[in-house]
TrEMBL record:
InterPro entries: ABC-2_transporter_component, ABC2_memb-like, Motility-assoc_ABC_perm_GldF. One of its GO terms (cellular component) is plasma membrane. It comes from Hymenobacter lapidarius. PANTHER family: MEMBRANE COMPONENT OF ABC TRANSPORTER YHHJ-RELATED (PTHR30294), MULTIDRUG ABC TRANSPORTER PERMEASE YBHS-RELATED (PTHR30294:SF29). The keyword Nucleotide-binding does not apply. This is Gliding motility-associated ABC transporter permease subunit GldF. It is found in: Cell membrane. The keyword Membrane applies. The lineage of its organism: Bacteria, Pseudomonadati, Bacteroidota, Cytophagia, Cytophagales.
Length: 241
């Protein structure tokens, strides 16, 4: 699995995909956090990074499917999938290696944004006037969100040999699990609205953004990742049916 992880990650770094993803993410977040007057931290007057954490999920909604769309679809189109699957590797090792490479690239995009935290920390009045617990929780939430989106993207790529279709399926899947249940809950009332809302990512992500790292939220994210990767495994096994 580590060999596949290294191979896939190096393939990303040797192609424009990694640099486009990093560039688009950092430019978009930088403009909204520091430049655009309606969302700029400098004009907002509060020492927090809520703009970043509100915007990043929507950017990830498109960027992570762009990363994952090639994982299996490219192998199928090139005819190398059978060669890969006949190697002395389990399906779990193949899926795990490709998935972790995609997730690592997505998490790499978050690393430069730590400069945003440092800048706001220094600019606060008094210095350090920022809710660090909420910021850490938000970063944990973004990392887990990226993990879920990457798992859905890998599953979408395993379903087709066309990268564009894999991208579109992944975007729709990520959108539904991030915002779909929340939208459905908004038209319901009482306990039904609460339980439907808990099925989506948005409610759990909001809890983490408050600095509340609850075990129930962690179990939710890890469960969704496990289900998506297991579904990917079943798709690959279907070649033997």
């Amino acid at each position: 699995m580590l060999t596949i992880l290294q191979k896939e990650f190096n393939a990303f770094l040797n192609s424009p995909v990694a640099y486009v993803v990093l560039g688009v993410f950092l430019i978009a977040t930088g403009l909204f956090v520091w430049v655009f007057p309606d969302s700029s931290v400098l004009d907002y007057g509060y020492a927090d990074l809520q703009t970043l954490f509100n915007l990043a999920p929507w950017i990830f909604l498109f960027l992570i499917p762009a990363i994952t769309m090639r994982t299996f679809a490219e192998e199928k189109k090139a005819g190398t999938i059978e060669l890969l699957l006949t190697r002395p590797l389990t399906d779990g090792q193949i899926i795990g290696g490709k998935y972790l490479a995609c997730l690592l690239l997505a998490l790499l995009a978050l690393v430069p944004t730590l400069l945003y935290y440092y800048s706001v920390y220094k600019l606060g009045n008094p210095e350090g006037n920022i809710d660090s617990a909420a910021t850490v929780g938000s970063y944990v939430g973004l990392a887990l969100l990226a993990a879920v989106f990457a798992a859905i993207g890998v599953l979408a790529s395993a379903l087709t040999r066309d990268q564009i279709i894999a991208f579109l399926v992944a975007v729709v899947g990520c959108f539904l699990i991030y915002s779909g249940f929340d939208s459905l809950a908004s038209v319901l009332e009482g306990s039904a609205a609460y339980y439907v809302g808990q099925l989506g990512i948005a409610a759990h992500y909001r809890d983490l953004s408050k600095g509340l790292v609850d075990s129930r939220d962690l179990v939710y994210f890890f469960s969704v990742v496990a289900v998506a990767l297991q579904a990917t495994r079943l798709v690959l096994r279907s070649r033997n049916w």
